[in-house]
Amino acid sequence: MMEKPIRLLLIEDDQEDVLLIRELLSDIGGQSFLLKYAGELEAGLEMAAAGEVDIVLLDLSLPDSQGLETFIRLYGEIPGVPIVVMSGLNDERIALTAVREGAQDYLVKGHVDHNILARTIRYAIERKRVEEELRLSLEKLRRSLEKTISAMSLAVEIRDPYTAGHQREVTKLVEAIGREMGLEKEQLDGVRLAAEVHDLGKINIPAEILSKPGPLTPIEFNLIQTHPKVGFDILKSIEFPWPIDRIVHQHHERINGSGYPEGLTGSEILLEAKILSVADVVEAMSSHRPYRPALGVEKALNEIVLHRGTLYDADVVDVCIKLFRERKFRFGNS
Ligand SMILES: [Fe+2]
Question: Each residue of 83-134: pLDDT tens digit?
Protein backbone atom coordinates (compact mmCIF):
# COMPACT_ATOMS: atom_id res chain seq x y z
CA MET A 1 0.00 0.00 0.00
CA MET A 2 1.22 3.50 -0.84
CA GLU A 3 2.03 5.63 2.22
CA LYS A 4 0.63 9.17 2.48
CA PRO A 5 2.87 11.57 0.50
CA ILE A 6 5.54 13.29 2.59
CA ARG A 7 5.62 17.06 2.07
CA LEU A 8 9.29 17.79 1.75
CA LEU A 9 10.89 21.19 1.48
CA LEU A 10 14.29 21.11 -0.15
CA ILE A 11 16.46 24.18 0.44
CA GLU A 12 19.40 23.80 -1.91
CA ASP A 13 21.01 26.18 -4.39
CA ASP A 14 23.03 23.69 -6.43
CA GLN A 15 20.90 22.57 -9.39
CA GLU A 16 22.83 19.32 -9.83
CA ASP A 17 22.20 18.40 -6.21
CA VAL A 18 18.52 19.28 -6.61
CA LEU A 19 18.26 16.93 -9.59
CA LEU A 20 20.13 14.22 -7.75
CA ILE A 21 17.85 14.40 -4.73
CA ARG A 22 14.77 14.42 -6.97
CA GLU A 23 16.08 11.27 -8.59
CA LEU A 24 16.81 9.59 -5.25
CA LEU A 25 13.36 10.49 -3.96
CA SER A 26 11.62 9.13 -7.07
CA ASP A 27 13.42 5.86 -6.56
CA ILE A 28 12.02 5.22 -3.08
CA GLY A 29 9.45 2.46 -3.39
CA GLY A 30 6.15 2.73 -1.55
CA GLN A 31 6.63 6.35 -0.65
CA SER A 32 5.76 9.44 -2.65
CA PHE A 33 6.86 12.98 -1.98
CA LEU A 34 5.35 16.40 -2.52
CA LEU A 35 8.46 18.39 -3.18
CA LYS A 36 8.79 22.11 -2.63
CA TYR A 37 12.02 23.76 -3.48
CA ALA A 38 13.86 26.95 -2.49
CA GLY A 39 17.26 28.07 -3.76
CA GLU A 40 17.93 30.55 -0.96
CA LEU A 41 17.38 30.59 2.80
CA GLU A 42 15.04 33.59 2.74
CA ALA A 43 12.71 31.90 0.25
CA GLY A 44 12.96 28.67 2.26
CA LEU A 45 12.07 30.48 5.50
CA GLU A 46 8.97 31.90 3.86
CA MET A 47 7.83 28.53 2.54
CA ALA A 48 8.55 26.82 5.86
CA ALA A 49 6.69 29.49 7.83
CA ALA A 50 3.67 29.09 5.54
CA GLY A 51 3.34 25.56 6.97
CA GLU A 52 2.32 22.32 5.26
CA VAL A 53 5.84 20.94 5.47
CA ASP A 54 6.56 17.52 7.02
CA ILE A 55 10.33 17.73 6.77
CA VAL A 56 13.09 19.99 5.46
CA LEU A 57 16.27 18.92 3.72
CA LEU A 58 18.66 21.80 4.21
CA ASP A 59 21.92 22.58 2.49
CA LEU A 60 24.09 24.62 4.85
CA SER A 61 25.82 26.73 2.25
CA LEU A 62 23.35 28.90 0.38
CA PRO A 63 23.82 32.19 -1.48
CA ASP A 64 22.33 34.18 1.42
CA SER A 65 23.54 32.12 4.42
CA GLN A 66 26.52 29.95 5.26
CA GLY A 67 27.32 27.22 7.77
CA LEU A 68 25.48 26.34 10.96
CA GLU A 69 23.90 29.80 11.06
CA THR A 70 21.72 28.60 8.17
CA PHE A 71 20.35 25.78 10.28
CA ILE A 72 19.93 27.90 13.41
CA ARG A 73 17.86 30.51 11.61
CA LEU A 74 15.57 27.92 10.03
CA TYR A 75 15.20 25.97 13.27
CA GLY A 76 14.28 29.16 15.12
CA GLU A 77 11.49 29.71 12.62
CA ILE A 78 10.05 26.18 12.65
CA PRO A 79 11.14 24.39 15.86
CA GLY A 80 8.39 21.78 15.45
CA VAL A 81 9.42 20.59 11.96
CA PRO A 82 12.19 18.00 11.53
CA ILE A 83 15.22 19.32 9.66
CA VAL A 84 17.84 17.10 8.07
CA VAL A 85 21.05 18.94 7.26
CA MET A 86 22.90 18.13 4.04
CA SER A 87 26.38 19.34 3.46
CA GLY A 88 29.24 18.86 1.12
CA LEU A 89 31.45 18.95 4.19
CA ASN A 90 32.20 15.64 5.87
CA ASP A 91 32.94 17.24 9.22
CA GLU A 92 32.03 15.24 12.31
CA ARG A 93 32.30 18.30 14.58
CA ILE A 94 29.84 20.38 12.55
CA ALA A 95 27.52 17.38 12.23
CA LEU A 96 27.50 16.83 15.97
CA THR A 97 26.91 20.51 16.69
CA ALA A 98 24.01 20.59 14.22
CA VAL A 99 22.39 17.61 15.92
CA ARG A 100 22.95 19.14 19.37
CA GLU A 101 21.30 22.33 18.16
CA GLY A 102 18.23 20.35 17.10
CA ALA A 103 18.88 18.91 13.63
CA GLN A 104 17.45 15.41 13.21
CA ASP A 105 20.35 14.21 11.11
CA TYR A 106 23.33 15.26 9.03
CA LEU A 107 23.90 13.81 5.58
CA VAL A 108 27.06 14.21 3.58
CA LYS A 109 26.45 14.79 -0.13
CA GLY A 110 27.81 12.05 -2.33
CA HIS A 111 27.46 9.51 0.48
CA VAL A 112 23.71 9.12 0.21
CA ASP A 113 21.77 6.56 -1.79
CA HIS A 114 17.99 6.29 -2.01
CA ASN A 115 17.84 3.75 0.83
CA ILE A 116 19.77 5.95 3.25
CA LEU A 117 17.72 8.98 2.24
CA ALA A 118 14.39 7.18 2.67
CA ARG A 119 15.34 5.81 6.06
CA THR A 120 16.73 9.14 7.25
CA ILE A 121 13.56 10.98 6.25
CA ARG A 122 11.22 8.46 7.85
CA TYR A 123 13.21 8.25 11.08
CA ALA A 124 13.56 12.03 11.28
CA ILE A 125 9.81 12.54 11.01
CA GLU A 126 9.09 9.82 13.54
CA ARG A 127 11.72 11.04 16.01
CA LYS A 128 10.45 14.59 15.79
CA ARG A 129 6.91 13.38 16.46
CA VAL A 130 8.06 11.56 19.60
CA GLU A 131 10.11 14.60 20.68
CA GLU A 132 7.07 16.85 20.29
CA GLU A 133 4.88 14.44 22.27
CA LEU A 134 7.46 14.41 25.03
CA ARG A 135 7.70 18.17 25.02
CA LEU A 136 3.92 18.53 25.26
CA SER A 137 3.64 16.05 28.12
CA LEU A 138 6.46 17.85 29.97
CA GLU A 139 4.60 21.12 29.51
CA LYS A 140 1.46 19.48 30.84
CA LEU A 141 3.36 18.18 33.85
CA ARG A 142 4.74 21.62 34.61
CA ARG A 143 1.27 23.13 34.37
CA SER A 144 -0.03 20.50 36.82
CA LEU A 145 2.80 21.32 39.22
CA GLU A 146 2.02 25.01 38.95
CA LYS A 147 -1.64 24.24 39.72
CA THR A 148 -0.54 22.21 42.77
CA ILE A 149 1.24 25.30 44.04
CA SER A 150 -1.81 27.48 43.40
CA ALA A 151 -4.01 25.03 45.33
CA MET A 152 -1.59 25.07 48.28
CA SER A 153 -1.52 28.85 48.19
CA LEU A 154 -5.31 28.99 48.29
CA ALA A 155 -5.38 26.61 51.27
CA VAL A 156 -3.15 29.01 53.24
CA GLU A 157 -5.26 32.01 52.34
CA ILE A 158 -8.59 30.39 53.21
CA ARG A 159 -7.33 29.47 56.65
CA ASP A 160 -5.53 32.72 57.44
CA PRO A 161 -7.56 35.77 56.38
CA TYR A 162 -4.97 38.25 57.67
CA THR A 163 -2.39 37.17 55.18
CA ALA A 164 -4.99 36.71 52.45
CA GLY A 165 -3.49 38.35 49.42
CA HIS A 166 -0.06 38.69 51.07
CA GLN A 167 1.46 35.82 49.11
CA ARG A 168 -0.13 37.12 45.92
CA GLU A 169 1.25 40.64 46.39
CA VAL A 170 4.68 39.32 47.34
CA THR A 171 4.63 37.19 44.19
CA LYS A 172 4.05 40.29 42.04
CA LEU A 173 7.00 42.10 43.57
CA VAL A 174 9.22 39.01 43.41
CA GLU A 175 8.44 38.64 39.71
CA ALA A 176 9.18 42.31 39.03
CA ILE A 177 12.50 42.16 40.90
CA GLY A 178 13.51 38.91 39.20
CA ARG A 179 12.73 40.30 35.76
CA GLU A 180 14.58 43.53 36.45
CA MET A 181 17.61 41.51 37.64
CA GLY A 182 17.55 39.57 34.36
CA LEU A 183 16.82 36.12 35.79
CA GLU A 184 16.39 33.31 33.25
CA LYS A 185 12.82 32.10 32.69
CA GLU A 186 13.47 28.88 34.60
CA GLN A 187 14.78 30.69 37.68
CA LEU A 188 12.00 33.26 37.46
CA ASP A 189 9.35 30.51 37.38
CA GLY A 190 10.93 28.92 40.45
CA VAL A 191 11.02 32.07 42.57
CA ARG A 192 7.52 33.08 41.46
CA LEU A 193 6.05 29.72 42.48
CA ALA A 194 7.98 29.71 45.77
CA ALA A 195 6.59 33.18 46.53
CA GLU A 196 3.04 31.92 45.95
CA VAL A 197 3.40 29.42 48.82
CA HIS A 198 6.19 30.88 50.94
CA ASP A 199 4.06 30.93 54.11
CA LEU A 200 2.57 27.48 53.53
CA GLY A 201 4.12 26.28 56.81
CA LYS A 202 1.76 28.59 58.73
CA ILE A 203 -0.96 25.95 58.39
CA ASN A 204 0.85 24.32 61.32
CA ILE A 205 0.27 27.36 63.55
CA PRO A 206 -3.00 27.85 65.46
CA ALA A 207 -5.19 30.47 63.76
CA GLU A 208 -5.55 32.38 67.08
CA ILE A 209 -1.81 33.05 67.11
CA LEU A 210 -1.77 34.15 63.47
CA SER A 211 -4.63 36.57 64.03
CA LYS A 212 -3.65 37.69 67.55
CA PRO A 213 -4.07 41.47 67.76
CA GLY A 214 -1.37 42.12 70.40
CA PRO A 215 2.34 41.30 70.67
CA LEU A 216 3.35 37.62 70.68
CA THR A 217 4.78 35.76 73.68
CA PRO A 218 8.24 34.19 73.17
CA ILE A 219 6.62 30.74 72.90
CA GLU A 220 4.21 31.97 70.23
CA PHE A 221 7.04 33.65 68.38
CA ASN A 222 9.07 30.44 68.44
CA LEU A 223 6.12 28.61 66.98
CA ILE A 224 5.77 31.18 64.17
CA GLN A 225 9.44 30.71 63.39
CA THR A 226 8.86 27.05 62.53
CA HIS A 227 6.89 27.94 59.38
CA PRO A 228 9.79 27.98 56.86
CA LYS A 229 10.87 24.48 57.95
CA VAL A 230 7.30 23.14 57.95
CA GLY A 231 6.79 24.59 54.45
CA PHE A 232 10.05 22.95 53.36
CA ASP A 233 8.99 19.58 54.77
CA ILE A 234 5.68 19.69 52.92
CA LEU A 235 7.17 20.83 49.61
CA LYS A 236 10.21 18.56 49.55
CA SER A 237 7.98 15.50 49.04
CA ILE A 238 7.11 16.76 45.54
CA GLU A 239 9.83 16.60 42.91
CA PHE A 240 9.50 20.07 41.39
CA PRO A 241 11.84 21.06 38.56
CA TRP A 242 12.58 24.20 40.63
CA PRO A 243 14.16 24.47 44.12
CA ILE A 244 10.85 25.69 45.61
CA ASP A 245 11.33 23.80 48.87
CA ARG A 246 14.74 25.38 49.51
CA ILE A 247 13.61 28.89 48.57
CA VAL A 248 10.70 28.62 51.03
CA HIS A 249 13.03 27.19 53.68
CA GLN A 250 15.36 30.19 53.35
CA HIS A 251 12.90 33.08 53.04
CA HIS A 252 13.57 34.34 56.59
CA GLU A 253 17.34 33.94 56.40
CA ARG A 254 19.38 37.17 56.51
CA ILE A 255 22.73 37.96 54.86
CA ASN A 256 24.57 38.45 58.20
CA GLY A 257 23.33 35.15 59.62
CA SER A 258 20.75 36.68 61.96
CA GLY A 259 17.79 35.04 60.23
CA TYR A 260 16.07 31.72 60.80
CA PRO A 261 15.76 28.72 60.79
CA GLU A 262 19.38 27.87 59.89
CA GLY A 263 21.16 31.19 60.39
CA LEU A 264 22.67 30.93 56.90
CA THR A 265 24.88 33.75 55.62
CA GLY A 266 25.63 35.47 52.27
CA SER A 267 26.39 32.97 49.55
CA GLU A 268 24.76 30.11 51.48
CA ILE A 269 21.40 31.71 50.72
CA LEU A 270 19.86 31.19 47.28
CA LEU A 271 19.45 34.34 45.21
CA GLU A 272 15.76 33.45 44.87
CA ALA A 273 15.41 33.43 48.67
CA LYS A 274 17.19 36.79 48.89
CA ILE A 275 14.67 38.24 46.44
CA LEU A 276 11.74 36.66 48.26
CA SER A 277 12.87 37.92 51.68
CA VAL A 278 13.07 41.54 50.47
CA ALA A 279 9.68 41.36 48.75
CA ASP A 280 8.17 39.67 51.83
CA VAL A 281 9.37 42.38 54.23
CA VAL A 282 8.35 45.25 51.95
CA GLU A 283 4.85 43.85 51.45
CA ALA A 284 4.37 42.90 55.11
CA MET A 285 5.36 46.36 56.36
CA SER A 286 3.31 48.10 53.70
CA SER A 287 0.08 46.37 54.63
CA HIS A 288 -2.16 45.98 57.63
CA ARG A 289 -1.34 43.29 60.20
CA PRO A 290 -3.50 41.94 63.05
CA TYR A 291 -1.13 43.50 65.60
CA ARG A 292 -0.61 46.89 63.90
CA PRO A 293 -1.94 49.15 61.16
CA ALA A 294 -0.10 49.42 57.84
CA LEU A 295 3.24 51.21 58.18
CA GLY A 296 3.24 52.27 54.55
CA VAL A 297 5.52 51.66 51.58
CA GLU A 298 7.90 54.50 52.50
CA LYS A 299 8.71 52.99 55.91
CA ALA A 300 9.15 49.59 54.27
CA LEU A 301 11.60 50.98 51.71
CA ASN A 302 13.51 52.85 54.44
CA GLU A 303 13.82 49.57 56.33
CA ILE A 304 15.43 47.68 53.44
CA VAL A 305 17.77 50.60 52.64
CA LEU A 306 18.81 50.82 56.29
CA HIS A 307 19.74 47.13 56.32
CA ARG A 308 21.07 46.96 52.77
CA GLY A 309 24.03 44.55 52.69
CA THR A 310 23.57 43.45 56.32
CA LEU A 311 20.14 41.85 56.46
CA TYR A 312 19.18 42.15 52.80
CA ASP A 313 21.14 41.55 49.62
CA ALA A 314 22.41 44.89 48.32
CA ASP A 315 21.63 44.23 44.64
CA VAL A 316 18.11 43.05 45.42
CA VAL A 317 17.49 46.14 47.57
CA ASP A 318 18.74 48.45 44.82
CA VAL A 319 16.49 46.83 42.23
CA CYS A 320 13.51 46.93 44.58
CA ILE A 321 14.00 50.64 45.29
CA LYS A 322 14.37 51.33 41.58
CA LEU A 323 11.09 49.54 40.88
CA PHE A 324 9.16 51.70 43.35
CA ARG A 325 10.93 55.00 42.61
CA GLU A 326 11.49 54.85 38.84
CA ARG A 327 9.18 52.16 37.53
CA LYS A 328 6.26 53.16 39.75
CA PHE A 329 5.71 49.65 41.04
CA ARG A 330 2.67 49.51 43.31
CA PHE A 331 0.96 46.76 45.29
CA GLY A 332 -2.61 45.96 44.29
CA ASN A 333 -3.99 47.20 47.60
CA SER A 334 -2.15 50.53 47.77
FE1 LIG B 1 7.23 33.94 56.16
Answer: 999 988 888 898 899 999 999 999 998 888 888 888 899 899 999 999 999 9
Q: Collapsing DSSP states into helix, strand and coil, what is residue 36?
A: strand
Catalytically annotated residue among 202, 212, 229, 328: 202
Neighbour-count burial for 50-75, b at 16+ CB within 10 Å, e otherwise: eeebbbbbbbbebeebeebebbbebb
User: Could you tell me which of 33, 320, 3 has the C-alpha nearest to residue 178?
Assistant: 320
Mean pLDDT across the stretch 172-180? 97
Contacts of 194 (CB under 8 A, 6+ apart): 242, 243, 244, 247, 248, 251, 272, 273, 276
Ligand 1 centroid distance, CA of 228 (Å): 7
Instruction: Quote the CA–CA distance of 268 and 181 in Å, as a whole number.
Output: 19
Q: Is 274 noted as a catalytic residue in this protein?
A: no
Using DSSP's 3-state secondary structure scheme, residue 6 falls into: strand
Distance 204 CA to ligand 1 centre (A): 13
Would you state the pLDDT for residue 84?
96
C-alpha angle 287/291/293, rounded to 5°? 40
Complete domains list, the chain, with CATH = 6-133 (3.40.50.2300), 160-325 (1.10.3210.10)
> For the chain, how long is the longest CA-to-CA vector?
87
Is the confidence at residue 2, as pLDDT, over 80?
A: no
Cα–Cα distance for residue pair 226/203, rounded to 1 Å: 11
Q: What Cα–Cα distance (Å) separates residue 69 from each residue in 94, 203, 266? A: 11, 54, 42
Mean pLDDT of 219-225: 92
Distance 4 CA to ligand 1 centre (A): 59
pLDDT of residue 144: 93
Residue 302 CA, ligand 1 centroid: distance in Å: 20
